[in-house]
Design brief:
By secondary structure, this protein is α+β, with helices and mostly antiparallel strands. 24% of the residues lie in helices and 32% in strands. β11 and β12 form a beta hairpin. The longest helix is centred in the middle third of the chain and has 16 residues. The model has no long low-confidence stretch (mean pLDDT 93).
Length: 262
């Protein structure tokens, strides 16, 4: 509402996407985007990325949902493989630059919908946060009920991708910090494989430590160790983000050698 020209651009982009002249009934903020609602129940929503407006004067459609496309009942007629193919057709409409940074993750299912997901990787390193792309496919009628492209907070050129701290040094720093923080010796937990991750534009090693004493406060501690510079961060005994890392990324991760790149 503060900028009438931006508001007009947002409304116009949403209307053009839906091919309608209908006026929206309201707006919300969702993961840094403007959600343009076309009915009070929010069943038809277009997501707009307004961040390019300041430099280009344009806004971009970065997602939508239409709950009216969901089947009300019926047996599943669409396979996960077919859902992925339909989602890939949407994926191919994304800007080429975005496509190059997105890597297929998995097809999951919930509430009668297949959720087909791609995750962002920069030089093979997973980017955390909402920087992904997901498409929802109805399991009965095969309709695309939503798609959502996350905002990429930093371009590749601004992201740290070469660690100065290798895995062996990261383990040492984690053990050292844990001894000072908790006053007891801790070791790597076998159930979690250390990996490199990007948070914003910073590179961090993710590890899980344990004191080897089940049922005690330090039986599990997730730790983020800076791969370049900064302090060791303790994330607590549970971390939903780290516990839900893409399996293919974790299993295929190969620790790079530390370097001095920018």
């Amino acid at each position: 509402d503060d900028d009438p020209r931006l508001k007009a651009a947002v409304i116009r982009a949403a209307q053009q996407f839906l091919r309608t002249r209908e006026r929206p009934v309201g707006f919300d903020s969702v993961n840094g985007k403007i959600a343009v609602n076309f009915d009070p129940q929010r069943t038809r929503v277009v997501l707009i990325d307004y961040h390019p407006y300041g430099t280009t004067g344009r806004v971009l459609v970065s997602g939508f949902k239409d709950d009216t496309r969901k089947s009300r009942a019926g047996a599943r007629r669409v396979t996960a493989e077919a859902a992925r193919r339909r989602a890939e057709a949407i994926f191919r409409r994304l800007p080429r630059g975005k496509q190059r940074e997105l890597v297929f993750d998995a097809v999951t299912e919930f509430a009668g919908v297949y959720h087909v997901r791609w995750v962002r990787q920069v030089h093979g390193i997973l980017v955390m946060g909402n920087e992904d792309f997901t498409v929802g496919i109805d399991q009965v009628n095969g309709a695309v009920v939503y798609w959502d492209l996350g905002i990429f907070d930093f371009p590749v050129a601004m992201i740290e991708a070469t660690p100065r701290v290798g895995l062996a040094e990261a383990k040492r720093l984690a053990h050292e910090a844990a001894a000072g923080e908790f006053g007891e010796a801790m070791r790597l937990a076998e159930a979690f494989r250390p990996v490199l991750l990007i948070y914003g534009r910073e590179l961090r090693w993710a590890l899980r430590l344990t004191n080897g004493k089940p049922g005690t406060p330090n039986a599990s501690q997730y730790v983020l160790v800076p791969a370049r510079e900064g302090e060791v961060l303790f994330r607590g005994p549970a971390d939903p983000e780290l516990e839900a890392l893409p399996r293919a990324y974790v299993e295929g991760f190969v620790a790079p050698k530390p370097g001095s790149g920018s």
